[in-house]
Design a protein that fits this description.
Helix content: 25-40%
CATH topology of the largest domain: Rossmann fold
Number of helices: 12
Number of strands: 12
CATH architecture of the largest domain: 3-Layer(aba) Sandwich
């Protein structure tokens, strides 16, 4: 029966186990590391050490062991947004869960970094302090203060859903260029020429900026221009969004299609249209990005550029474990294919809406 420790603040160490087993600390270390046989340690000694460790409820110090073995079999995930996402945020929940499952498939645990109060240098040293073998940095901006430290470090690092402008760090992201090209081409194929864009007021992140910039570029190449007043920054709030949709669809000249920079915003727009009596997709087609079905008061499936979050997380882990095993490798840079699905919110504009009647 295991002995209870009277002082919970102290934990048994290697020396305690050695004394109880009547052997040296080095022998205990070899036995518990699984190296007893190669050092010709007898079965009787092995059994004594194991029994002593069990009776003392001894667990090896994983930080020390990782430094000795050069590997902890733990990967760290750091969210560069530096705040804890809402538990209802289906994007990060889906992506982080996929990353955790992929880590487990590789025989690793995933450590989620949660203390964002530390200054950049201290954060870096914590990441590099031996608790994990490498770091997956989620969605950093080009000016993220951790990037200079990581570029000059030997700590294996993968940028997830981002890329390093200096190509010094490995990365995996979705092919946003092709995704927005598909949106522009599909709208053109269906006959849409009057297109609006919604960006939420929190859209300071690079994803929103890049998606909108690319869409405008590809639409221009197709001979379609978007009036500045149809590029609308909205509050991420259903009441405010309701007012924005109502304002956009008033008057004689209104858009026939609306791109929302992510799916959550897109489903909120569809709900507002239902309340306002705006027919989707007869009066207005709506397209989002990410391929995530958010809760909605309508039966619609949003047209969206689908990103395989499971594959995104899997490849992030695959790249990182490859770098852990070979730190001399050049940066591995991958782009994940995406594809547009029409859903039930994308259709040709009616002849009335096109001004033909």
């Amino acid at each position: 029966m295991r002995a209870r420790l009277t002082d919970k603040a102290s934990r048994p160490n290697l020396t305690d186990v050695a004394k109880k087993a009547g052997v040296s600390p080095s022998t205990v270390s070899l036995v518990l590391a699984g190296k007893a046989k190669e050092r010709y340690i007898s079965d009787e000694v092995i059994q004594r050490v194991q029994q002593a460790a069990a009776s003392l409820d001894y667990s090896p110090n994983m930080l020390v062991r990782s430094m000795q073995q050069g590997r902890a079999n733990i990967l760290c995930l750091y969210n560069a947004f530096r705040y804890r996402q809402s538990p209802t945020d289906q994007y990060t929940v889906g992506l982080f869960t996929a990353t955790a499952i992929a880590a487990g498939d590789k025989g690793c645990n995933l450590l989620l970094f949660c203390d964002f109060s530390l200054p950049p240098e201290e954060t870096y040293h914590t990441l590099k302090g031996g608790h994990s073998d490498g770091v997956i940095l989620f969605a950093p901006r080009p000016d993220d203060p951790l990037l200079p430290y990581l570029r000059s470090s030997r700590l294996p690092t993968v940028l997830l859903n981002s890329e390093d402008e200096q190509n010094a760090l490995s990365s995996i992201r979705d092919d946003v260029e092709d995704g927005m090209r598909q949106v522009a081409l599909r709208l053109g194929e269906l006959g849409h020429r009057k297109i609006a864009i919604f960006i939420s007021s929190t859209s300071w992140n690079m994803d929103a900026q890049k998606r909108v910039t690319l869409l405008l570029q590809f639409l221009t190449e197709s001979g379609i221009s978007v009036p500045p007043e149809w590029i609308v920054t909205v509050q991420f709030d259903q009441d405010d969004l309701h007012k924005a949709v109502k304002h956009l669809m008033q008057g004689e000249d209104t858009p026939t299609a609306l791109f929302c920079w992510h799916d959550h915003l897109g489903y909120m727009v569809v709900d507002s249209c239902a309340e306002l009596g705006i027919d989707i997709p007869g009066t207005l087609s709506v397209i989002g990005y990410d391929g995530i079905a958010w809760p909605s008061r309508t039966p619609h499936t949003l047209a969206s550029v689908h990103v395989d979050l499971v594959e995104l997380g899997r490849q992030a882990v695959e790249i990182l474990t490859t770098l852990v095993h070979d730190k001399e490798l050049s940066p591995i840079i991958r782009t994940l294919p995406v594809h547009l699905k029409d859903g039930t919110t994308l259709a040709p504009p009616s002849t009335y809406r096109m001004g033909l009647i």
